[in-house]
Amino acid sequence: GAVVSQHPSWVICKSGTSVKIECRSLDFQATTMFWYRQFPKQSLMLMATSNEGSKATYEQGVEKDKFLINHASLTLSTLTVTSAHPEDSSFYICSAKDREGFTTEAFFGQGTRLTVV
Amino acid sequence: GQNIDQPTEMTATEGAIVQINCTYQTSGFNGLFWYQQHAGEAPTFLSYNVLDGLEEKGRFSSFLSRSKGYSYLLLKELQMKDSASYLCAVMDSNYQLIWGAGTKLIIKP
Lengths: 117, 109
Fold this sequence. Notes:
The complex is a heterodimer of chains A (117) and B (109). Chain A has strands at 4-7, 10-13, 19-25, 30-38, 45-51, 57-58, 67-73, 76-81, 90-98, 107-108, 112-116.
C-alpha cells in the first residue's frame, strides 16, 4: 500500500516552545491530509483537514492559531504546535488520501508522541 | 448526530475465534473500515466494506449489513500478537471518517 511518513516519531519539548511535525506521502500525491490527536485509551480525534494550496479546515474546539497547519505541496503537510503546554502532550497522527480518484482507505503516518514538560 | 458503537474491551483465548461488533448511525455511508492499532502505534488498515456481505482476508473477515447499520470483524486462530485495539470507522457522505472508540482485545494463552 501507499506509504505516509511522519516525523519525528517522538519529541520532548519545554513548555512555551513550538514543535513542528511533518507528514509526507512518499509514493503518491495527496490533495488531502488529515491530522488527528489521540489521548491514551481514547479513539482518534480529527483536528483538521488539510488541503493542498488552501487553508486547513479545523474541527470545532481546535484552536487554529495554536495548531498551525501548512499543506504547501501535494506530498507534504506540517502541523506546528505553538506555545506548547503539558496538556498538549498527546499522540498526533496524520493520514493522507490519494488524489487519484476515490480511495478506499486513508493511509496513516507512524504517529508522533509529543511530551511537553 | 453521528455515532459509532463498539465494545470497550474483549478477552479471548489463543487459537480461538472472536467477533467484534460495530453499530453505526451516520450522515450518509461511503464504506466501513476496520483498523488495528497496537499501543503507541498508528492504526493499520485491515478491511473495507461498502456492500453487504462478508469479506474474507486470511484469518480476518469483516461483515456488513447496511440496512441494520451493523458490521463485525471476525478474527480466527487468534495469536498473541492480535492483542490490540480494533477501530471501526465509517466514511460519511462528506467522505470523512467517523471513528468508534475502539475495542481493546486481550488474548490469553
